[in-house]
Amino acid sequence: MSTRENALYYAKNNYEAFLSNLESFIRIPSISTSSENVVWVKTAANFVEKLLNSIGVADTKILETNGHPVVFGHYKTDTPNAPTVLVYGHYDVQPPDPLDLWETPPFEPSRREDYLFGRGSSDMKGQIIASLSAVESIIKTGEVPVNIKFIYEGEEEIGSPNLPAFLEKYSKLLESDVVLNPDSGMISPNIPTIVYGLRGLAYFELRINGPDHDLHSGLFGGIVHNPASVLSNLISGMHNSDGVIQLDGYYDDVIELSEIERKELSRLPISDKDLLDQTGVKMLWGEKNYTSIERTGVRPTLDINGILSGFTGEGSKTVIPAWAMAKISMRLVPDQDPEKVHQQLIKYIEKNIPPTVSWDLKKFAGGKASIANTNHPGVIALSKALEEVWHTKPVFKREGGSIPIVGEMQKILGTDSVLTGFGLPNDNIHSPNEKLHLPTWRKGILAIIHFFYNYSGENEN
Amino acid sequence: MSTRENALYYAKNNYEAFLSNLESFIRIPSISTSSENVVWVKTAANFVEKLLNSIGVADTKILETNGHPVVFGHYKTDTPNAPTVLVYGHYDVQPPDPLDLWETPPFEPSRREDYLFGRGSSDMKGQIIASLSAVESIIKTGEVPVNIKFIYEGEEEIGSPNLPAFLEKYSKLLESDVVLNPDSGMISPNIPTIVYGLRGLAYFELRINGPDHDLHSGLFGGIVHNPASVLSNLISGMHNSDGVIQLDGYYDDVIELSEIERKELSRLPISDKDLLDQTGVKMLWGEKNYTSIERTGVRPTLDINGILSGFTGEGSKTVIPAWAMAKISMRLVPDQDPEKVHQQLIKYIEKNIPPTVSWDLKKFAGGKASIANTNHPGVIALSKALEEVWHTKPVFKREGGSIPIVGEMQKILGTDSVLTGFGLPNDNIHSPNEKLHLPTWRKGILAIIHFFYNYSGENEN
Questions:
Q1: Interface mutation target, options B208, B257, B268, B305, chain A, most CBs of A under 10 Å
Q2: b/e for A93-132, b at 16 or more Cβ within 10 A?
């Protein structure tokens, strides 16, 4: 057997052990947004470092940031003139709420038929274990064809606020030829997918303050401007009835689609029927004159992620709420700038807020959109790898989600990322009952093994 | 000393014992809207019955309804041809949320300076204990000048859904000449107040359903109509920018103010400055061409009592919520009908709901507005009683709150209510840190003693 075949053989014989690693990883509730879970986030970082050591990556360290730490690892090959791949991952997860909708506890992995359920199973603890299992298979069976560095952050789900500074500080340590980022997914189990574009993100919390305490709606109804009404008015004005965002200047920096890209995207095998099935909505919605794939990939959005005001318990309580709060986020596309849309939102509020209330806007971390070169040697190596396992050419997709790190790595390190991943659209990531499709995940491990061998070869040519 | 003077003397010497009864009463969390507190609501009913017995009202019973029970009591006087007063009260209270804003626990009464803090201290356990203390003072010191019946319900804070049927069933038992209802309040500690008008209430819960689970806002943002946005649009359209409610036909049955009543109301010593102080808002708000007193007393309202949707915890979570919910209530004035505004709300939603979502409207109990005759012998007796204690004539007020029982008693029993009470506008009823002003409350006990003696005399003349 060739070295590559040895590695593939090793992987196929160790799926159960890999899966057991994933289950242990899921049991750690590393929710980065929750201050109560700081210890668990740290535990997850330690878990990743130990796992690196156990698969044969001895040179590891946990590097502090102003937030959650980064786990770094480095495997130096004996192969001369080998290129360096930087493998990215995030070991943090989304909060599990609403908890009552989970069929099994979010941090207790549960295998049911072809799926493994649990928070992070797909996004992205499953993808981390897939890439580490591929590396393990290569290290344990022969000569490693490339140098491999590892960077695992703990703040992706809160917008990677401390990563730019980290990249600046450790740019030398992180030098590489390409970044392998398995934090995106596949269109369906039979269609391997390479993502070449990602949307950016800007996230805010808006609070409207009215009376200094909840008031009796009988005694004061008619003279106090209800903060929940004021907030609703503001939200209502953010889109027009055609779904177009009404912040002044919001579309100024949006790059319009070329006809060529439009044609390419129209070939993607995702139908509106698929999207209806995945979401359960009665009917799709959005900006006119753009297809669903365009609206989720190349057009910016503004979404309300949450609202809270007044009495929300069982039954009735007749109060005028003292305040109302909304979480508001935008998915950005090239060349929108998170800080610029922040200013646009402030101007919108200033223009529309009535004098009866006061307000406060908090900004959470965000990031720019990114687009990759589809002719990059890393993309070619990955494309071949996916074809070798699935026996079909992968499709190329611009994705609606945001991985700020991709743009930052391009800007700060000068390194391009190749984006893939083995999650599926109905994995319920960020939702209750998140799951991982195990047959696809197993194929993913094999594809990453192929990628490393292909990339070393691609680079020789 | 006369009989009346004996009773007043007894009251003045027993304030501490009365207050201790009130403290025991507050310790019972009789939250009628909460299914978890059913046992406590029952406990409060038993407490009231025992208290009636202990002050000398032997003829009591607890009468079941389809909801929480009613406590009935009857004291028959030996005085020949005496009229009958029916004393009303509700032993249930509002929920205490938001709990974290209470300075001391809501169900642990706390005396601080001139105040007693605790849920129900003002609304209306304090008022119940005031009237029972007055009755006790009369019974224990001499001949009782009137027959007294008592009706204590446990569902006022949820709109008294079962009371109309109860009144129908027990109309014979509840026969009386006048109802004394101490569930309203005073304008300030030095201005005794008689309420002659109350607003009605209609309360709803609207739920907008979008996707069948919370979605990743990156993957699906741009193609799914956000339920929180849809709800905001609906709420936003319910008022125009002048504060006028936009439900078709909403004002059709509203009786406009007469010039005489307008003049009377303008004499009430409540300034906009007072209202700013009581609410803490930057600026008052509401329908143009009506004063603040008119807007809270004689004009109908529509208020959002609560909103909930999506992620509302700390930090950020990038979801498109599966649903959004609002609690919506209206304060009604003569001759609006709760069922008619219910239909108007349904029509408004049907007209404005987009086809992208589904919706559901729940109706909670409501009631019509009511207006009393200010020349009623009961009103005259109460007016004199208040003047005897405060040495100033009471003011007459139409109040913004709702006590559905008043209209129902007029309609079903044919009995008018006289409305007073010894709470103050800054008592924080329905809010955290509810409190009772003890000096005013003590005076209230004396005033009720006077009322009973006055009323028997008024009736003789």
A1: B305
A2: bbbbbeeeebeeebbebbeeeebbbbbbbbbbbbbbbbbb
Q: Hey, how many other C-beta atoms are within 10 angstroms of the C-beta on B269? A: 10
Do A327 and A433 share a domain, yes or no? no
A105-148 tens-digit pLDDT:
999 999 999 999 999 999 999 999 999 999 999 999 988 999 99
Same domain (yes/no): B48, B106? yes
> Which residues in chain A have Cβ-Cβ distances shorter than 8 Å to B216?
401, 429-431
Between strands A84-90 and A178-181, the pairing is: parallel
* Mean pLDDT, rounded, for B280-297: 95
- Cβ of residue B312 closer than 8 Å to a chain A Cβ: yes
Cα torsion angle, A39, A44, A45, A50, sign: positive
Whether residues A97 and B401 touch (CB distance < 8 A) is answered with: no
φ, ψ of residue B327 to 5 degrees: the values are -95, 125
Instruction: Write out pLDDT tens, residues A67-113.
Output: 999 999 999 999 889 999 999 999 999 999 889 999 999 999 999 99
Phi and psi angles of residue B26, each rounded to the nearest 5 degrees, phi first: -65, -30
pLDDT band at B460 (very low <50, low <70, confident <90, very high): very low
Q: Is residue B124 part of a domain?
A: yes
Contact assignment for A216 to B401 by CB distance below 8 Å = yes
A167-193: average pLDDT: 95
pLDDT at B458 over 60: no
Tell me the chain B residues in contact with residue A106 when contact means C-beta distances shorter than 8 Å: none
- Structural domain including A354 reads 200-254+300-364
Question: Is residue A326 within 8 angstroms of chain B, CB to CB?
Answer: yes
Is B305's CB within 8 Å of A286's CB? no
Q: Please indicate, yes or no, whether residues A57 and A184 belong to a single structural domain of this protein.
A: yes
* Average pLDDT of chain B to the nearest whole number: 94
Q: What is the mean pLDDT of residues B200-208?
A: 96
Please give the average per-residue pLDDT across B11-39, as a whole number.
Answer: 96
Q: Which residues pair with B419 in a beta bridge?
A: B181, B195
Evaluate whether residue A275 is within a structural domain: no
Interface of A with B in 66-125 (CB under 8 A): 94-95, 97-98, 101
Residue A70 domain-assigned (yes or no)? yes
| Smallest Cα distance from B354 to chain A, Å | 10
CA-wise closest residue to B127 among B427, B335, B393 = B427
Mutate to test the interface with A, among B223, B351, B435 (most CBs of A within 10 A): B223
- Whether B384 has a pLDDT exceeding 60, the answer reads yes
- ipTM score here? 0.82
Question: Does A206 lie in the same domain as A179?
Answer: no
Residues 274-303 of B with CB under 8 A from A: 275, 278-287, 292, 295-296, 299, 301, 303
Q: What count of CB pairs under 8 Å joins A to B?
A: 359
Is residue A392 a part of any domain in this protein? yes
Residues of A in contact with B308 (CB under 8 A): 307-309, 312
pLDDT of residue A460: 44
What pLDDT does A1 receive?
66
By CA distance, what is B292's nearest residue in A?
A223
Nearest C-alpha of chain A: how many angstroms from B111? 21
Closest CB from A219, A222, A303 relative to B299: A222
Residue at a domain's end among B320, B343, B364:
B364
Report the range of poorest mean pLDDT among A122-136, A333-347, A366-380, B69-83: A366-380
Q: Averaged over B284-305, what is the pLDDT?
A: 95
Give the tokens for residue A90.
Answer: 């995030």
Which long-range contacts link B97-106 to residues 24+ away (Cβ below 8 Å)?
B97/A311, B97/A313, B97/A317, B98/A214, B98/B432, B99/B432, B101/A213, B101/B432, B101/B433, B102/B432, B102/B433, B103/B432, B103/B433, B106/B29, B106/B432, B106/B434
Task: Say if the Cβ atoms of B213 and A296 lie within 8 Å.
Answer: no
pLDDT of residue A461: 37
B142 — contact with chain A (CB < 8 Å)?
A: no
Predicted confidence (pLDDT) per residue in B415-436, tens digit: 999 999 999 989 999 899 999 9
